[in-house]
Design a protein that fits this description.
It is a single chain. This protein is mainly alpha-helical. It has one domain. The chain contains two helices and no strands. The protein is flat, with a radius of gyration of 14 Å. The termini are far apart. This is Cation-transporting P-type ATPase N-terminal domain-containing protein.
Amino acid sequence: ENIPIEEVFENLRCSKEGLSSDGAKERLEIFGQNKLEEKK
């Protein structure tokens, strides 16, 4: 299924320019760092 790019941006609450600094900080607080745990 193909979704129009405008709909993708709307669903992700972003734009083709990316996230604002405030938006990035907000998502970092909500979701945490985009980081995988290392195996020991």
